[in-house]
Amino acid sequence: MIYNDCETGDYMETDEKILDSAILLMASKGYKAVTIKEIAAHASVSEMTVYRQFGNKQNILDAIITKFQYASSLKEQLEKELTYDLEHDLLLYSIIYQNYMIKNKQIYMISVLERNTMPDLHLTLHKNVEEIQQFLLDYFRKMQSQGKLIKGNVDSFVALFMRFNYGHFVSETLLGFSNIPISNEEFLKDSISALVTGLTPKASN
Amino acid sequence: MIYNDCETGDYMETDEKILDSAILLMASKGYKAVTIKEIAAHASVSEMTVYRQFGNKQNILDAIITKFQYASSLKEQLEKELTYDLEHDLLLYSIIYQNYMIKNKQIYMISVLERNTMPDLHLTLHKNVEEIQQFLLDYFRKMQSQGKLIKGNVDSFVALFMRFNYGHFVSETLLGFSNIPISNEEFLKDSISALVTGLTPKASN
DNA sequence: TAATTATGTTAGTTAGTACTAACTAACATA
DNA sequence: TATGTTAGTTAGTACTAACTAACATAATTA
Asked: What is the pTM of this model?
């Protein structure tokens, strides 16, 4: 089995091939169910090479986690482009969020599969969720104080929006079940348009 | 370790204790990572009893699947109580859906963990999703034709609503992260109220 | 060219796990 | 009294997977 699909056309480093194969297999079957033999075969290296590079199985996962633990650029990416127009901003958020999650879907899947055996990983990733939630809470409060968001419980509105985005990510990307006969972007546009109508104060008031 | 929490106060049958322990452990760690020894210990029986009752590990999972494969009562439960008032019906759906998923969360978790190793289970449960989606599509179309739902892509509206419910289930029940400082029912009420406002045609038209 | 480095090969050891077999104990029932 | 049923105990087999050690070879570098 040959495995080498680095986008640059260069051959991937041995370490990268191993980590790439490991994350793929672990996200598919879980840490315990994946064997070093499988990882080596998928990376087209010998089992010994894996052991020489990483020592043991746990170190492979640790390397994966370290590699994918870059700072949450989600917030910074957003803050720059906010226009304080509800529809624009929520759509922007949804698109950026989906792209962010697609990039991290494998490490996220591992964290779900191993949420009980290795709770630290899951908690670490969950920190990001809390940060995003806080960011959205601040944004929604600001919009509310400017009369651009209906009165009511901001916590609920934020949760509504977050759970919609999260549900979309899980069914569409993580589990790969697409039941919608239209494109992803169209769907987001339609949904957020309806959402925004519900969250915008009536003009007549 | 003593394990016996049958609601009737009677002692649970040996088979039930074993299945109950197995589903709990498999939903927590995945099929492969659970050992017969663990299941036996958790059910407070000897390993041999497990083998005598079920023969092998796969049979335990098969028994679990068979036991939890009752007809989707979700649709029937709903049809009876529909009032064709959007807010009432969507809130009703959300509550019934959440309760239904809570009941089936363990088998659902197993289907996610083993989605690649045993794709049949996941596909079977997914059939239910498709059925629910079709039901909601019919309902939304009906409401739209009665002028009780805004014009636009019904597929999007259904997906918006389903993904909100699904996202809520996954974060609240499946992964157990509750970030909302209010009660579940209050949250559903608030969210659906906002959603319904967005999906209801304006009175002035 | 010689040394070094990266990788492969082969053959182990050790531990865990699914599963079997033989036997025993307690209790119920014909 | 004899037999069936249900569960436990103990020992063992077959296999798998993590991990190690020793040696071989190809590529890279001094």
From this structure: 0.91
Those of residues 115-134 in A touching chain B at CB distance below 8 A are 115-117, 122, 126, 129-130, 133
Neighbouring C-beta atoms of residue A86, cutoff 10 Å: 19
Per-residue pLDDT at B56 exceeds 70: yes
Statement: residue A1 has pLDDT above 50: no
Element (H, E) at B107: helix B105-113
Cα B106 to Cα A115: distance, rounded to the nearest angstrom: 14
Q: 């944004």: which residue's tokens?
A: A139
Mean pLDDT of all residues belonging to chain B: 89
Domain made up of B73-199: CATH architecture: Orthogonal Bundle (1.10)
B37, B51 in Cβ contact below 8 A?
Answer: no
Please report the pLDDT score of residue B1 as a whole number: 31
For residue A71, pLDDT over 60 is answered with no
Are residues B191 and A32, on separate chains, in Cβ contact within 8 Å? no
Instruction: Give the closest nucleotide to A50 (alpha carbon vs C1').
Output: C7
According to CATH, where is 1.10.357 located in chain B? 73-199
Q: Does B48 touch chain A (CB under 8 A)?
A: no
Any atom of strand C under 7 A from CB of B47? Answer: yes
- pLDDT value of position B74: 85
At A72 the pLDDT is 61
pLDDT score for A75: 86
**CATH architecture label of B14-67:** Orthogonal Bundle (1.10)
Q: Which long-range contacts (CB under 8 A, 24 or more apart) does B97-101 make?
A: B97/B132, B97/B165, B97/B169, B98/B165, B98/B168, B98/B169, B98/B172, B98/B173, B98/B184, B98/B188, B100/B73, B100/B74, B101/B169, B101/B173
Note the CA–C1' distance, A53 to C12, in angstroms: 21
DSSP B54-87: HSSHHHHHHHHHHHT----HHHHHHHHH--S-HH
The residues near B190 (Cβ < 8 Å, ≥ 6 apart) are A152, A153, A156, A157, A160, B182
Question: Could you read off the pLDDT of A119-156 as tens digits, one per residue?
Answer: 999 998 888 889 999 999 999 999 999 999 999 999 99
CA distance B202 to B205: 6
Partner A contacted by B53 (CB < 8 A): no
User: According to CATH, where is 1.10.10.60 located in chain A?
Assistant: 14-67
Residue B49 (CA) to nucleotide C21 (C1'), in angstroms, measures 14
